[in-house]
C-alpha cells in the first residue's frame, strides 16, 4: 500500500488539516503539543484491555478490583459490600470455599471478569454506559436484578403497579410537635394530579405557600417543624377547640388557594385520639391519672372523654368531649373543609364510636392505633365494620409476608390501605417500593421536607420514570386501587 493510499484510507490528510487549522485559530505557542492533543480527542475511545483481581475491603474481606485500559488512558475501580447484603440486592459471587478467606474469596468472579466480561467489552466505547451495562446484563441472567417493587408485586400476585397518592404532612401537632394542637397531623392529598411527579410538585408548592401564610400570621417561630416535617405553630387560642382545629385547616386552605390547584388537593387529619383520651381505666394520655380533684375525676368517670385542651397548661375543662361530641365535630369539619380521610378519630379501644363514624360515610376512616397492623384486630374491625381503611406499618406487624397477608385481608374487605412511615425514620425507601408493588393507592411518609421523608418521595419519582408509559398514578382512584 502506497503512502497516499494509506492516507486516503484513514482520511489522515483531512484530520491533520483540521488539527492544524484548530492550532492556528487557537494561536497556540506549542502547535505540536496542541495538534497531538487534538488528534487524541477526535479519536473515539475504545476499551483495549480489562484486568480483574481480588483485593481486600476495609474489613479485610475479599472483593473485586478492575483495571480498565483504553486507547486514551487507564482507570481503576473496586466494589464495596455491606455487612449483610439485602435479599433484594444483586447477588455477590463468592467462592464458598471455607479453606480460603472463610468462603469469602472471589476468584470465580475475577475469572469471569478476565474471560467472559473482558471478551464482551473489548472494542466498545467506554463512554456508552448503557450499552456496556446491557452487555453485562446479557451475560448475567440472574433474576435477583428485578426491581424491588416488581418483586413485591410478584410475591403478592398483583399485576397492576400503581404510584400512590401521597398524604403530605403540612401541620404537625400532638406528640409529634411542641405546639398547642391536640390532633397529630393535618395532611394534604393531591388526588387531582395526573402523575406522581405532578403530585409531588403540588405538595411541595403548597408546603412552601403554607410556610409563607404561617410566617405572616405567627412569625418565623411558627415555621418550626415537627418530627414528620410539618409546621408546628401555636395556633390562636379560641373558646372552642373546634375553632382551634379550624384555624389550622384555614391556614392550609389559604395555602392551597394560593397555589391555584383548588379542588385537586384534598385534606386529611390524623387525630391520634388515644393521646388525649380520658377513660378506660382513667388513662390520661399515656399515663394513669394521679389527680385527686373530685370534679376532674367525676368528669373522667362519666364514660370515655377526650381532652382537646391537653396541650395547654391552664386547662379550663371546657373542652372535654364525649364520643358523640367528637362525631359532631367531625361532621362539622367535613362539611366545612374538603376532608377525605380521618385517622384514629377515637381511642384505640373505642370501637363503638369509630364504627358509628364509619357508618356515616363522611370520609375514609383509618385505623392505626385501633388496628396496630394486627391480623386479629383487623379481622375484628372488618367483622364489626369499625373502620374503612388500614394504616400499614411493616415493622409494626413484623415481616413482609405478614404485611402481604393483612393487605390482602383489607383489600378483600374493600378497604383502603395506607402504607406509612414511622415518626422515627431512616433514609431507607422500602415503603415506596412496597406501595407500588402492592398497588395500595396511598402512602403517608411526612412532609415534603427532611431527608428521611423525601427519600421515599424521591424513590417514587425514580420508579415512575423507570415505568415510563406503563406508570399509573392512583389519583381519583386512591381508595379503589
UniProtKB/TrEMBL annotation:
CDD domains: DD_AtENO3-like, enolase
All residue ranges annotated as the Enolase C-terminal TIM barrel domain in the record: 160-481
GO cellular component: phosphopyruvate hydratase complex
UniProt keyword terms in alphabetical order: Magnesium
Entry-linked InterPro entries: Enolase (IPR000941), Enolase_C (IPR020810), Enolase_CS (IPR020809), Enolase_N (IPR020811)
One example GO MF annotation: phosphopyruvate hydratase activity
Biological-process GO terms, alphabetical: glycolytic process
SMART domains: Enolase_C, Enolase_N
Cofactor(s) the record lists: Mg(2+)
Protein name: Phosphopyruvate hydratase
Amino acid at each position: 500500500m502506497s503512502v497516499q493510499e494509506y492516507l486516503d484510507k484513514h482520511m489522515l490528510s483531512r484530520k491533520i488539516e483540521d488539527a492544524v487549522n484548530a492550532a492556528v485559530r487557537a494561536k497556540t505557542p506549542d502547535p505540536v503539543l496542541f495538534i497531538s492533543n487534538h488528534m487524541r480527542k477526535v479519536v473515539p475511545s475504545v476499551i483495549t484491555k480489562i484486568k480483574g483481581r481480588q483485593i481486600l475491603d476495609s474489613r479485610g474481606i475479599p472483593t473485586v478490583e478492575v483495571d480498565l485500559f483504553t486507547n486514551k488512558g487507564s482507570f481503576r475501580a473496586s466494589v464495596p459490600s455491606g455487612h449483610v447484603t439485602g435479599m433484594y440486592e444483586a447477588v455477590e459471587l463468592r467462592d464458598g470455599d471455607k479453606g480460603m478467606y472463610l468462603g469469602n474469596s472471589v476468584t470465580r468472579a475475577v475469572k469471569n471478569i478476565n474471560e467472559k466480561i473482558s471478551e464482551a467489552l473489548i472494542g466498545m466505547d467506554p463512554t456508552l454506559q448503557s450499552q456496556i451495562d446491557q452487555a453485562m446484563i446479557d451475560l448475567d441472567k440472574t433474576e435477583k436484578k428485578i426491581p424491588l417493587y416488581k418483586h413485591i408485586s410478584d410475591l403478592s400476585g398483583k399485576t397492576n403497579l400503581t404510584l400512590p397518592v401521597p398524604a403530605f404532612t403540612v401541620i404537625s401537632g400532638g406528640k409529634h410537635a411542641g405546639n398547642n394542637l391536640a390532633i397529630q397531623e393535618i395532611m394534604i392529598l393531591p388526588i387531582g394530579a395526573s402523575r406522581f411527579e405532578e403530585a409531588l410538585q403540588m405538595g411541595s408548592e403548597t408546603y412552601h405557600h403554607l410556610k409563607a401564610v404561617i410566617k405572616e400570621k405567627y412569625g418565623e417561630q411558627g415555621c418550626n417543624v415537627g418530627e414528620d416535617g410539618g409546621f408546628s405553630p401555636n395556633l390562636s387560642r379560641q373558646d372552642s377547640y373546634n375553632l382551634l382545629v379550624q384555624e389550622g385547616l384555614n391556614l392550609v386552605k389559604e395555602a392551597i388557594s394560593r397555589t391555584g390547584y383548588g379542588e385537586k388537593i384534598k385534606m386529611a387529619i390524623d387525630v391520634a385520639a388515644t393521646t388525649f383520651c380520658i377513660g378506660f381505666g382513667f388513662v390520661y394520655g399515656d399515663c394513669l391519672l394521679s389527680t385527686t380533684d373530685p370534679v376532674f375525676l367525676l368528669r373522667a368517670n362519666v364514660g370515655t372523654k377526650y381532652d382537646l385542651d391537653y396541650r395547654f397548661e391552664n386547662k379550663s375543662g371546657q373542652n372535654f368531649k364525649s364520643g358523640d361530641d367528637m362525631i359532631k365535630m367531625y361532621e362539622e369539619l367535613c362539611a366545612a373543609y374538603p376532608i377525605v380521610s380521618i385517622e384514629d378519630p377515637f381511642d384505640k379501644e373505642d370501637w363503638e364510636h369509630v364504627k358509628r363514624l364509619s357508618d356515616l360515610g363522611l370520609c375514609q376512616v383509618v385505623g392505626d392505633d385501633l388496628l396496630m397492623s394486627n391480623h386479629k384486630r383487623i379481622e375484628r374491625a372488618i367483622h364489626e365494620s369499625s373502620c374503612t381503611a388500614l394504616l400499614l406499618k411493616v415493622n409494626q406487624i413484623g415481616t413482609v409476608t405478614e404485611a402481604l397477608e393483612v393487605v390482602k385481608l383489607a383489600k378483600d374487605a374493600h378497604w383502603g390501605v395506607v402504607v406509612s412511615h414511622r415518626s422515627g425514620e431512616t433514609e431507607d425507601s422500602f415503603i415506596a417500593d412496597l406501595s407500588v408493588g402492592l398497588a395500595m393507592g396511598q402512602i403517608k411518609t411526612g412532609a415534603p421536607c427532611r431527608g428521611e421523608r423525601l427519600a421515599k418521595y424521591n424513590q417514587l419519582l425514580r420508579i415512575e420514570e423507570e415505568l415510563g408509559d406503563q406508570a399509573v398514578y392512583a389519583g381519583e382512584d386512591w381508595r379503589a386501587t
